[in-house]
Amino acid sequence: MSSLSVVALRTIWIKECTRFMRIWVQTLVPPAITMSLYFVIFGNLIGSRIGQMGGFSYMEFIVPGLIMMSVITNAYANVSSSFFSAKFQRNVEELLVAPVSTWIIILGYVGGGVARALLVGSIVTVVSLFFVDLNIHHPVMLVLTLVLTATLFSVAGLVNGVFAKSFDDVSVIPTFVLTPLTYLGGVFYSLSLLPDFWQAVSKLNPVVYMVDGFRYGFLGISDVGIATSVAVLIGFNLALFTVAWQLLKRGVGIRS
Amino acid sequence: MNALEIRDLRKTYKGGVEALKGIDLSVNQGDFFALLGPNGAGKSTTIGIISSLVNKSGGTVKVFGDDIDQDLVKAKSHIGLVPQEFNFNQFETLLQIVVNQAGYYGVPRGIAKERAEKYLKQLDLWEKRNVPARTLSGGMKRRLMIARALMHEPKMLILDEPTAGVDIEIRRSMWTFLKEINQQGITIILTTHYLEEAEMLCRNIAIIDKGRIVENTTMKGLLTKLNIETFVLDLPPNSVKPTLDGFVYRMIDDHSLEVDVPKSASLNAVFSQLSEQGVQVLSMRNKANRLEELFVRLVEDGRANSERGEKK
């Protein structure tokens, strides 16, 4: 990578991190509060009546899924809203006139999304420690699924930002696609509880593999197998990076 | 090698609007060049293509010899763009905006901060460096965009109506600044609606209308095309209505006389005839910006020629 690209990448990444840190009340505080409520209501109050799931207390079972849920929503929201704002205020032109390659623009924005996702994930993890003792079964799998998921949803947010023509377009996908996929992605239950048909349907949901792989990192239990989880994550990442590159290269939504 | 070399540049937007119909343009290194034209003529499209904000439909663009199709990275690094619309993040501070822009061109942060101080001071914005850009006045925002465009020290600065909506005092200080950086060797291309601005600053000029270049000459050459100037003479109230042999003239009201003076004629002839008739002249002014009249004429001539061409 040329020195120009290194400086440009660092600049975009710092700009993105500065942006979400500047509005920390909107970006960092809400997930901490929301997840605390999940821990209190689902983990403590309802969870204590559910009993064990997969050999662990319900609270222990849902913590990895809830961390992953906050990682997914924050990675996506960061890049989709930041890129769309840049289009809306036209400051994306600052990048388009500069000799910055398409890859560097993608990596810079995705890097910002991953940074926010990991920071929020860390905050939620710290909050969860007030409710449950966490043990890490497989640190490599934990970090791998975490980073690949944050990357995947950051790129997905970028694609959304490229296509978005209004602020409504930025919120439509999280509301009508991301939230259902996450809630039905095994955050709150084990797939083994579902009938065979719904288990098969659930396996079409990519979030299942992320939550499952991440849960394996913490607890050592898996519904779909860790190799499958990693393969699905890598496959979706490659596909979405290619889509994002094609869109930006052709100037979709940013060049006339 | 020219600073800018455009050949047969064409742009057709989705929906079929043909914004550029094959323009040729050359700008010398170190030039102060004006690109004029009415709204929708194709000025911003041309600038957009040069600076990679608009995809061209055909033709070639070379910036300091680097073709935008073959070596876009090098071509881009020669250009600093000051667009017509404010296009910075309104929530970022001035310092963040200019330092980040330098970073996109590969300028390390330490050097970028030094340059930020230099250009923000030169453009009287240093005191505001830590405030969000949205709090600036219109004139300050325009100067911020100039500072931002200079951060990577480009060889060519393109300004798309940089003084639109700026008061005359700030406009003049911007003119002085632009003249200074042009003298230091930066090629400047300017689009403007203020023809006085083009006359004051630019050595060469192109007029574009409906996607075609209708005139491309030196500013001096353009001004020689002015054949007639109209003067308004203020007379004492209720003056005798004068007669002027050899001139076209009219009384606008009881104390204002309007006279068309051909280039071949002398103003002395007007004054001597008025003196003979005992008519006093209190003051005199140009009726309108003479360049504006010429501009309108050239655009109208260009349209008439193009209509004749299309009928063929």
Give structural notes.
- The complex is a heterodimer of chains A (256) and B (312).
- Helix content of chain A is 77%, strand content 2%.
- Chain A has one domain.
- A two-stranded antiparallel sheet of chain A has the order 1-2.
- With 256 residues, chain A is mainly alpha-helical.
- The radius of gyration of chain A is 19 Å and the shape is globular.
- Chain A is built from 11 helices and 2 strands, in the order αααββαααααααα.
- In chain A, strand 1 and strand 2 (56-57) form a beta hairpin.
- Chain B is an alpha/beta fold and 312 residues long.
- Chain B folds into 2 domains: 4-223, Rossmann fold, CATH 3.40.50.300; 228-288, Alpha-Beta Plaits (2-Layer Sandwich), CATH 3.30.70.
- Helix content of chain B is 36%, strand content 27%.
- Chain B has helices at 43-50, 72-77, 94-104, 109-122, 138-150, 168-183, 195-201, 219-223, 267-276, 290-311, and strands spanning 4-12, 18-27, 32-36, 58-63, 66-67, 79-82, 156-160, 187-191, 204-209, 212-218, 228-234, 248-253, 256-262, 283-286.
- A 6-stranded mixed β-sheet of chain B has the order 6-7-8-3-9-10, with helices on both faces. In chain B, strands 2-1-4-5 form a 4-stranded antiparallel β-sheet. A 4-stranded antiparallel β-sheet of chain B has the order 12-13-11-14, with no helix packed on it.
- Classes of the chains: A mainly alpha (256), B alpha/beta (312).
- At the A-B interface, helix 1 and helix 5 of A face helix 2 and helix 3 of B.
